[in-house]
Amino acid sequence: MPAPLHGCRGFRTLPVPRRHLLTAGGAGLLGLTLPRVLSAAPSALPVRARRVIFLFQWGGPSHLDTFDMKPDAPREIRGPLAPIPSVVPGLPVCEHFPEMAKRMDRVTLIRSMTHTMKNHNSAGYYALTGHAPPSDDQRLRDSLDLWPAYGSVVDALLPRRDEMPTFVSYPHTLADGSVTPGQHASFLGKRHDPFFFNDDPAAPVFRLPQLSLPADLALSRMERRRELQRLIDRDAGLLERSAEVAGFDAAYDKAITMLTSPRVKAAFDLEEEPEQLRDRYGRTTYGQGCLLARRLVEAGVTFVTVTFAKSIGGKRVNDGGWDTHGFDNTRMYEIVDKYQHPIADRTLAALLDDLEERGMLDDTLVLWMGEFGRTPKINDQASRDHWPQCYTALLAGGGVKRGYVHGASDAQGMFPARHPVRPEDLAATLYMLMGIDPAAEIHDLAGRPLAIAGRPVTEVIA
Known about the structure:
Layout lengths: L50 E6 L18 H4 L4 E2 L8 E2 L3 H4 L5 E7 L6 H10 L20 H8 L9 E4 L4 E2 L1 E2 L15 E2 L22 H18 L1 H4 L1 H17 L2 H6 L7 H7 L3 H15 L3 E5 L32 H18 L6 E6 L3 E2 L11 E2 L3 E6 L7 E3 L1 E2 L6 E3 L4 H11 L7 E3 L5 E3 L11
Parallel strand pairs: 1-9, 1-10, 4-14, 5-8, 5-9
Antiparallel strand pairs: 2-3, 4-13, 6-7, 10-13, 11-12, 15-16, 17-18
C-alpha cells in the first residue's frame, strides 16, 4: 500500500465584503461561496475507474426482494416473490428483475453491508459520504461539521482542469423531515459542491437555465463585470492575502467557463440520443437521468450521482423511493412490482448495456444501493421495515469482478454471516478503484486531519 497522502487542508471561512458579492448571469451556477483550499500529492495507485455513476436508491430497497433472496426461509421471511435463475449459476434474483437476471455476469454483489443507523437522514448521510453520523436521528441536519459527499472529495483530490465539472448531482434534493446531509462539499467549501440541478431529464424539452445567459444580459457585459470584480479584488489586496478569496475567484471563473462552453451544453443535450435508446432506458425521470449520466461521464465528468426519487416513498404508489412499510392501501407487494422494481430493472440493465456497447464499462464504476435494507420478517402490514444490520450493494465495471458475490447474509438475511462491510469500507474501495489512496487525509474546520475512508474490500477488485 502506498504511503498515505498528506498536506490536504481546509481553511476557515473569512468574512466577505459586500463588494465581492457581485453577480452576473450564471454566476450562481456552482452555488458559489468562498472555497477552502485542498491539495494532495498524486497517488501511486492504479486507476481502474476513471469515472463513477452512483445510483442512489433513496428509501432503502429490500435486499430479500432484489438480490439476496431466501427461498428456503419460512414464508414470513422469504416473502411472496419468487426467485428466478440468472446467467450466473447459483445466483438467483427476484422475479421482478428479469433483465438484470441476464446481466448478473457483469456485476459484483456485496451481500454483507452493515451499520446501525435506522433513520433515513442518518443512514442516507452515511451512504452518501461513507462516514457515520454523530447520532441516529431523523432530525439530523446539514452542518459544516459533517462530511462532504463522495463526489466533493473526488473534486478536491482529483479536480478536472477543463470546462467540464468534476461532480454533477441531480435531480432531487433529498430530505426526510430535514434536508439530508452529505449531498454537497460541507467543510471543503462551495468550490467543491456538485453542479446540481432539479430539472426533469424526462421533460419533453429538457434545458438547463443554468447553462444559458439571461436574454437581457450579453456575455460581453458579464465579462466586463467580471473584470470590475478583479480590479476591486486586486486593489483591496485580498487575492494576495486570502487563499479563500482566490478560491472564490477560481470558482467564479469556472462558472463562466461552463456557462460559455459548447462542450458542456452538448453533454446535457439528451435530444442527441436516438429515440430507441431513450426508450430502452425508460421515459421516467430516473431512466432519462441514468442516460444523462452516461452522456456526462462520456463527455468527461468524473463523478455523477443520480437519485432514484425525491421522497423516501411511504404512502406513495406511483412515485417516491423504496420506503415501503405498508400504509393504508399501499402494501409493499402491491407497489414494488408496479413501480420501483420495473423501473430499477429496466434502467440498470440499459445502463450496463449502453456502457458495455460503448467500451466504457471496464473503466466506469456503477454503484447501485440504498441507505439500508428491509427487515427480514414481514410486518403486520404485509411489508418490511428499516433494516441497516444487513443489506446489499451492487457494483459493476470500473475494475470490479464480474459475476462475483462478496460476503453473505445469514439464513434469514438478518446479519452478515461472512465478511461484514461497513460504508467506510465501501468508500475506501470506491476511492481505491479511482486511484485515490483511502488513507489520504483532509482537514476539517478545526484543522483536524481526517482519513477519507476505511479499509478497502480488495476481494472485489478484479
